[in-house]
Design a protein that fits this description.
The complex is a heterotetramer, with two copies of chain A (about 400 residues) and two copies of chain B (about 350 residues). By secondary structure, chain A is of the alpha/beta class. Chain A has eleven helices and seven strands. The radius of gyration of chain B is 19 Å and the shape is globular. The chains are: A alpha/beta (about 400), B alpha/beta (about 350). The complex binds thiamine diphosphate (2 copies) and magnesium ion (2 copies). Chains A, C: It comes from Sphingobium subterraneum.
C-alpha cells in the first residue's frame, strides 16, 4: 500500500506580523465590540458555553461607556480605588525601573499596560482567597495597600526585606495579602493553586484560589497538569492566562496563540473558558466575579484569558526594540487600562482632569515616600538582612550540616 | 504488637495518621478504590472515604504540585508515586518548589508533604521499575530522604515523616515488602514472619528521622547501608567472616553523622554498600564525609560496593545487583589491605 | 466587597458507573451510528471541523456492512491481512500470558480488544514512516510480519533477545519495522514523534510519524508539550489516544474522560480532532488515511482518539475484577474488533466459518512454532545474552568506568 | 586566530557546525530572531534561516523531547535551555530517554543531542538564575557533562559535543561569559581581552571530551575545579602562597581520572572546589575516587570547598559563593595538617 507522491515536507517556523522597521499590525485579531458577548448564568454547564472562548468580553466602549451584560455595575468609589491601585503600580514601576538604572537593585520587571488585571481581581476577591501570582500582577498587592516601603525593601534586598534577601526582586511573598510566594520558575505554581483550592474544598471551607501564567508559559507541562487536576476534582480555582502577546522576545505564535485563543484551551478540560479584554478594568472584574461565583458554588474551575499587551520590555535585562517594532505598544488596539478607566470615570461624571492630576500627585508622593524610606534602610548591597538569617528556614530545624556551615562563617 | 510485613506496617502508619489527623489525606495513581499496586493503601478509602484516599490522574508533576498547594493551605498530604522511576516528571516540583518554599518565602509558606514511592530492584522490574534515585534527592537541600529496612522502622519513620514540617521523600524498598532479602535470588523466598522487627505496635509511635541503627555490632570494618541492602549486607558479612559493624542509615537526609563517625573511628575501615549506580551515587557523599572526619583512623581505603554504571538491565539483574559476594570480597580486601 | 454566603465547598472525587458486584453501564456515552459522521476534505482548516471531536466515526454497522463517507473501500485482500494480523496478536497474547503463568517470562501485557488500531495503522502507513508505540500496539508489528520468534525471544529475555535482555518484556524496538524503542515511562515518547516528524519536514523528506498514549497518560505534561510543538511547527505527525476506559484500576474519569472526549483536546491546539470507533478496523484505517493525507500535504498534525475498551487486565500483575464488574468487558457496546471484521468479510461474501477456522489454525500454528523456537533458545533465566553485552551501548564508546567494571566481572 | 569572549567562541562553534553539517540545527527559548538572552546564537538565524535556528515554546520538557526525536531521525540538534535552573522540567526526558535510548533499544536508536545551558552564579541572579546542577547529571550513566572555563576550550568542546554520538549536557558558566572572574566581586570587572585562551581559531577544531587541562602546575596540593571556579582557584592559590597544581576538569563525564590520580600521587594532597552545594555534590564523587585511588599517597584529608547547603540566596551571594579566601584557607589547612 503506497501513498501517492506529494510535494516534499517543509518545516514551519511561526513569524510575528511585524519585526523592527516594519509597520505593526494586529489585523490577525478580531477584537469584537464592547457589550456584544452574551453572559450565560455561571451555573450553566460548560457544554452550553463552548462559543465563549472565541469571543472577547469587553465592557468599556470607545466612548468610555460601560455597556452590555457583563457590566459589573461598580460604584464610583470602587472604580476610583481601582484607578488608584493601577496608578500606584504604574508609577512605582517607573520609579523602580529608574532605580535599577541607578544600581539600586539587581533587576526589575514592569507590568505596564497590564495593571487592570491584578487590581480588579484583588479587589473583587475576598481577603481569605489566595492568589498564586506571576511577576506581572504587582497591582494585586497595590490594590490591597501592601506597603510600598516593603515592596522597595524586597526589591533592594535590604536589611528590612520581608523575605530576608533570599530572592530576586519582584519575587514577593505576602501571605496576609493573599499573595503566594513567587519564584522565577515559570508555571510551577499553577498546580499549587489547584491543590490549595482542593484543600479548601476538602476542609469545607469557603475560600477559593486564583492563579496566573503568561501566554508563553501555557506551553509548560505544568499548565496542562494543573488544568487536568482542576477539572477532575472540580477545584474552586480561577486559572488565568495573561496573554500579553510576548514571552521575552518570542511572539505569541510560539505558544500556539496565532492559531486559536488561550481561552479555547479550557475546552480540552471541559472547563468554561472566557476571553476578556485585559485592559478593561470592568471586564476583568466581571469575568472574575462570574468565575468566582461558579467556584464558590462548587461548580469548579474557570480558565480566563486576559487579552492584553506587554508595553514595556520583558525586564531590565531586555530591549524590545530588538525584536518588535518600536511603536507596536502604542498601536495596541485595546489601549491603556489606566486611560480607559479614567475616561470612564470622566464619562460618568465622576472624574475630571484636575482630580486625576491630584490622584497622580498623591500616588507619586506615596511612592516617593515609600521608596525613600526603603532607600534609607539601604539599596542593593548597602544593607542586607543579618547574615545569620541565611542559614534559617532551610528546614523547620537546621541539621548538623547547616549548623556546621554557619559556624564556619563564625555566626 | 502484631506481626506485619512492610506493606502492612506502612498501611498501619497511614491508617493511624488518617485516624489521628483530619489534615492528613492520601492520593496517587491507583491508591484509592484499588488500594495501590502494592496494596499499601488497601482498605483506606473504604474506611475513611474517597476524599481522604483517592486516585489521581497519571501526572506525577501534577500530583506533587497538588500536594504542595495543599501543604501551603495547611494540610499534610501523603502522595504516592507508583514507582520511584516515575518520580522524575515531578523532580522540578520537588526541587524548585517543595524544597525551597519555606526558605524563599521567608517562612511564610511551607510544604509539609510526604512523598512515598516503591524503590529499588531485585524484582525483575527492568530498567523502569528498579531504580534507586536517592542521590538526586540527597543533593537538594530542603528535602529529607528516608529509606526504611524493616516493618517496625517503616511504620515509625512514615509517621515521623508525615508529622515532619519539611517535605520528605520516603523511599520504600519494594524487594523487601514481603520479606527480608539476602541478595541471593536462588535461595528460598523469606517472609517477615518471625523477624524481630516485624513485631509492630498497632498504634501511634515514631522512629525519629536522622537516627541510624546499628544493625550488627562489630569491630573490624564499618558497613554503611540502607533499605534492602541492610539485609544483603548481613549475608555478605556472614560470608566474609569479617567482624563488621553494620549501620542502617534509615534516613540519608538528615544523616546520622555521629553514629557513622564513631563506628569508623572504632573499626578503622569502611565499606559503603548501595544498589544505585556508583558514580555520583550517595555512597560518594558518605565516602567523602567519612574520609574528611576519620582520616587519621582509616587503615584501608573506604570502598564502595554499588550497582554498575549503566541502566538497570533486565536479564542481567543479578549481574548488576551488588550481592553478598561482592560485599564479602570488599570486606576481605579491606582487611587484607596494608 | 464581600461575596454572599454559599453552602461550603466540598471536594469532588470521580467515580466510575459501576464497581464489582454492580451492573456495568455505558449509558453515559453516546456511540452514535455507523456512517453518520461527515467527512470533510482533509485540506479544510481546523476551524471548519470543530464539531468532529464530539462525534464518533464508525464505518461498520450492526449488520457488518461498511457504510458512510468514511468507508475506506478496502480490497478484501487487505481486510484479510488485517484480520490475520489481529488474530496473530490475540493468539500470541493468550499464549504468552500463559507462558507468564508458567514462569517463562517476568511480565506480559495483552492488547485484547484493541488489536484493530495498530493493525490498520501499520498497514495503512508507509514502510518509512515511524511509529512511536505504547505496549498496547503489538498488532503494528504483527501486521508487518515481525517474526514471532523475535517477539518471544524479547519476552523471554533469552540469548537471542534482539534488545539483548535489557528491557522488560513488551518493550520492543524494531527500527526496520518502523517501530521506535518502547520503554516503561508513560508519555515520554509522544514528543519524540513530534521531533522525528519535524526532522522529516526539516529534511524535506516525505515520511511521517505516528504516536500513541493511553487515556490515562493524557494527563502527563508530555502530552501537552508534544501537542504544543506539533501545533506550533505544523509537524507531520498523527497523535493518537487509545482510550480503553481504564488506566490500571483508574477509570477514565481520572483523566477527565467522563466530562468530554479526548479528541476535544485537539481544539486547545487548533488541531483537527477525530473520535473513532477503535474496534472498527475500517474506521481506524479511514481516520488514519485522512490524517496521513493531511500530514503528507504539509498541513500538520491530527489528534485521533480511538474509543475502545481494555478487555484484559492491565498486565500480568493485575486483577481487574477487583475494581470493575466482572462482565464489563463483554458488555462493551462496540464489540470485538476481530469478530466485527470477520463478520464484515462474511457479510460481503468474502469469508465463512470454515475459512476463518483455517486462518485461526494457521495463526495458532505460526504462534506455536515461533514460541517453540524461542523456548528452544530459552525462557526467562534459562538463557540470556552474553553477559559482556551488558556493558555495551551505554555510550557509543565505553569510558574507563565501564571498562573497569567489566573487568571486575572478569569479562 | 581572533580574540573572542566566551559568548563569541560559543557562537563561532555553532556557526562552524551549522556551516559544516546540514544535520545540525539549533533551537530554544529566544534563540532565533533575537539571538538568545545571552546572545550566544546572535545572527545565526539571519545567516542560516529560520529552520536552522529557531525559537521554541516555553517548555523545557518539550524542547528536549523534540531534540531526542530529531536525534533518533538522524539529526544533531543543539538545544538551549535558557538557564540551567530551568532544565529540571526536562530532567525526566534527559534521564529516562536521552541517556538510555541507545542502551535500551539494543543500539537501534540513539540521541546524539547537545543541550547547552548557562549555568552557575555570581551574577546576582538569585535562587533561579544561579544554580549548578552538574551532580544530578553526572550520576546518570549515558549522559556526558561538559563545563568549559575559557573561550578556546568552549569552542573546541562545543564542537566535540555536537559531533559526539552521545547526549551531552553542555554547561556554560555565565559569570565568565564576558571575562574571567577571580571570585572577588569588589574588584574591577575583567574582560577576556588579552587572555591567552581568548585567542580562538575561526574554523573547525575540537577539544576532546574527557581530557582535563593542567591550569597551573604545582607540587604541594592538587586542586580540582571546573568552569568559573578555575579562575577563582587561581586567585585562591595565589593568595595562599601554596604551590598548588590546578586541574581544570573540562568535562566531568567522561572524567579524566588518570590526570587527577597522577597529580594527587605527586602532591599527596587534594582540595576540591565547586560552586554547587557541597552535600551530594560532584565533589563527593571526586573525593571518593581520589581517596580510593591515592589512599597511600594522601598526607592530609581531601577537602571540599563548595557552596553552602542551602538554596542560592540573592542578597548573600558573596557569602554563599566559595571565594578565593575559602580556598586559600583550605590549602593552608591541607599544608598544615599532620
Ligand atoms: C521554567 C522556566 N523556563 C524559562 C524561564 C525564563 N523566562 C523567564 S520569563 C520568560 C517569558 C515568559 O513569558 P510569558 O509566560 O508570556 O509571561 P510574560 O513575561 O509575558 O508576562 C522566560 C522564557 C523561566 N523563568 N522558567
Ligand atoms: C510516568 C509513569 N507513571 C506511572 C506509570 C505506571 N503505569 C504503568 S501503565 C499505567 C496506566 C496507563 O494507563 P493508560 O495510559 O490508559 O494506558 P493503558 O494501559 O490503558 O493502555 C500506569 C499508571 C508509568 N509506567 N510511567
Ligand atoms: Mg507573555
Ligand atoms: Mg487506558
Amino acid at each position: 500500500m503506497t501513498v501517492p507522491n506529494r510535494p516534499t515536507l517543509s518545516l514551519h517556523i511561526p513569524e510575528p506580523s511585524a519585526r523592527p522597521g516594519e509597520a505593526p499590525s494586529f489585523a490577525q485579531f478580531d477584537f469584537g465590540t464592547a457589550g456584544a458577548v452574551r453572559r450565560p448564568d455561571s451555573a450553566e454547564p460548560e457544554t452550553a458555553m463552548r462559543d465563549l472562548p472565541y469571543e472577547l468580553i469587553r465592557v468599556l466602549d470607545e466612548d468610555g461607556k460601560a455597556v452590555g451584560p457583563w457590566n459589573p455595575r461598580l460604584s464610583p468609589d470602587v472604580l476610583k480605588r481601582g484607578l488608584r491601585a493601577m496608578l500606584l503600580t504604574r508609577i512605582f514601576d517607573d520609579r523602580l525601573f529608574r532605580a535599577h538604572r541607578q544600581g539600586k537593585t539587581s533587576f526589575y520587571m514592569k507590568s505596564t499596560g497590564e495593571e487592570a488585571i491584578g487590581a480588579a481581581q484583588s479587589m473583587m476577591l475576598g481577603a481569605g482567597d489566595m492568589c498564586f501570582p506571576t511577576y506581572r500582577v504587582l497591582s494585586w498587592l497595590m490594590a490591597r495597600d501592601y506597603p510600598v516601603v516593603q515592596l522597595a525593601n524586597q526589591i533592594f534586598s535590604n536589611a528590612d526585606d520581608p523575605i530576608k534577601g533570599r530572592q530576586l526582586p519582584m519575587m514577593f511573598s505576602a501571605r496576609d495579602y493573599g499573595f503566594y510566594s513567587l519564584s522565577g520558575n515559570l508555571g510551577t505554581r499553577f498546580g499549587h493553586a489547584v491543590g490549595w483550592a482542593m484543600a479548601s474544598a476538602y476542609k469545607h471551607d469557603d475560600k477559593i484560589a486564583i492563579a496566573y501564567v503568561g501566554d508563553g508559559t501555557t506551553a509548560e507541562g505544568d499548565f496542562h497538569e494543573a488544568l487536568t487536576f482542576a477539572s477532575v476534582y472540580q477545584a474552586p480555582v480561577i486559572l488565568c492566562v495573561t496573554n500579553n502577546q510576548w514571552a521575552i522576545s518570542s511572539f505569541v505564535g510560539f505558544a500556539g496563540g496565532d492559531k486559536t485563543t488561550f481561552a479555547a484551551k479550557a475546552t480540552a478540560y471541559a472547563l468554561p473558558g472566557l476571553r476578556v479584554d485585559g485592559n478593561d478594568f470592568l471586564a476583568v472584574w466581571a469575568a472574575t466575579e462570574w468565575a468566582a461565583e461558579r467556584a464558590r458554588s462548587n461548580r469548579g474551575a474557570t480558565l480566563i484569558e486576559f487579552f492584553t499587551y506587554r508595553v514595556a520590555g520583558h525586564s531590565t535585562s531586555d530591549d524590545p526594540t530588538k525584536y518588535r517594532p518600536l511603536d507596536e505598544p502604542e498601536k495596541w488596539p485595546l489601549g491603556d487600562p489606566i486611560v480607559r478607566l479614567r475616561d470612564h470615570l470622566i464619562a460618568i461624571g465622576e472624574w475630571d482632569a484636575e482630580r486625576h492630576q491630584a490622584l497622580v500627585d498623591d500616588v507619586t508622593q506615596a511612592v516617593k515616600d515609600g521608596v525613600k524610606q526603603a532607600e534609607a534602610v539601604g539599596t542593593l548591597g548597602q544593607s542586607k538582612p543579618d547574615i545569620a538569617t541565611m542559614f534559617e528556614d532551610i528546614f523547620a530545624e537546621p541539621d548538623w550540616r547547616i549548623c556546621e556551615e554557619r559556624k564556619t562563617m563564625g555566626l | 504488637m502484631t506481626a506485619m510485613n512492610l506493606i502492612q506496617a506502612l498501611n498501619s502508619a497511614l491508617d493511624v495518621m488518617l485516624e489521628h489527623d483530619p489534615n492528613v489525606l492520601i492520593f496517587g495513581e491507583d491508591v484509592g478504590y484499588f488500594g495501590g499496586v502494592f496494596r499499601v493503601t488497601d482498605k483506606l478509602q473504604e474506611k475513611y472515604g474517597a476524599t481522604r484516599c483517592f486516585d489521581t490522574p497519571i501526572s506525577e508533576g501534577g500530583i506533587i504540585a497538588t500536594a504542595i498547594g495543599m501543604g501551603a493551605y495547611g494540610l499534610r498530604p501523603v502522595a504516592e508515586i507508583q514507582f520511584a522511576d516515575y518520580i522524575l516528571p515531578a523532580y522540578d516540583q520537588l526541587v524548585s518548589e517543595a524544597a525551597r518554599l519555606r526558605y524563599r518565602s521567608g517562612g511564610e509558606f511551607s510544604a509539609p508533604i510526604t512523598v512515598r514511592s516503591p524503590y529499588g530492584g531485585g524484582i525483575f522490574g527492568g530498567q523502569t521499575h528498579s531504580q534507586s534515585p536517592e542521590a538526586i534527592f540527597a543533593h537538594v537541600t530542603g528535602l529529607k530522604t528516608v529509606i526504611p529496612s524493616n516493618p517496625y522502622d517503616a511504620k515509625g519513620l512514615l509517621i515521623a515523616a508525615i508529622e515532619c514540617d519539611d517535605p520528605v521523600i520516603f523511599l520504600e524498598p519494594k524487594r523487601i515488602y514481603n520479606g527480608p532479602f539476602d541478595g541471593r535470588p536462588d535461595t528460598q523466598v523469606k517472609t517477615w514472619a518471625g523477624h524481630p522487627q516485624a513485631d509492630v505496635p498497632e498504634g501511634h509511635y515514631t522512629v525519629p528521622l536522622g537516627k541510624a541503627a546499628i544493625a550488627r555490632e562489630g569491630d573490624e570494618v564499618t558497613v554503611l547501608a540502607y533499605g534492602t541492602m541492610v539485609h544483603v549486607a548481613l549475608a555478605g558479612i556472614a560470608d566474609s567472616g569479617v567482624d563488621a559493624e553494620l549501620i542502617d542509615l534509615r534516613s540519608i537526609v538528615p544523616l546520622d553523622i555521629d553514629t557513622i563517625v564513631a563506628s569508623v573511628k572504632k573499626t578503622g575501615r569502611c565499606v559503603i554498600f548501595h544498589e544505585a549506580s556508583r558514580f555520583g551515587g550517595f555512597g560518594a557523599e558518605l565516602s567523602a564525609l567519612v574520609q574528611e572526619r576519620c582520616f587519621d583512623h582509616l587503615q584501608s581505603p573506604i570502598d564502595r560496593v554499588a550497582g554498575w554504571d549503566m541502566p538497570y538491565p533486565h536479564a542481567f539483574e543479578w549481574d548488576y545487583f551488588p550481592g553478598p559476594r561482592r560485599l564479602a570480597e570488599a570486606l576481605k580486601r579491606a582487611m587484607e589491605y596494608n
